[in-house]
Amino acid sequence: MRTIQDATDRLGTHRYPTTTDDLLAAHGDVEIEYSNSSETLAEIFGRLDRETYETHEEATAALYSAVSSDAIGRKFYSDRDPFSPGADFRTQRSL
Q1: CA 53 to CA 51: how far, in whole Å?
Q2: What's the whole-model pTM score?
Q3: Which residues have C-beta within 8 Å of that of residue 45, sequence separation ≥ 6?
Q4: All structural domains of the chain with their residue ranges
Q5: Torsion of the alpha carbons at 16, 20, 22 and 26, rounded to the nearest 10
Q6: For the segment 41-55, what is each residue's pLDDT rounded down to a tens digit?
């Protein structure tokens, strides 16, 4: 299994500054596996505008900003809110 950390480590081996096209030519086939799906770096960066990344940190931030919702473990889950029987926390309410 290749995790998002594996992908960021791989991006760290790239020479910067670089463009989106150069990153994808070198690493676009890298696949990140989630619990129920996977996607390649080409698919992830394909959601973004083409640009130049000055550093590995910029490329990594772009990667994290563009992963699909499949990367979310349990949607609508929070360990900070107590469960209240009969309450629907997904419906926004004004106080």
Answers
A1: 7
A2: 0.71
A3: 20, 23, 24, 28, 62, 63, 66
A4: 4-70
A5: 100
A6: 999 999 999 999 999
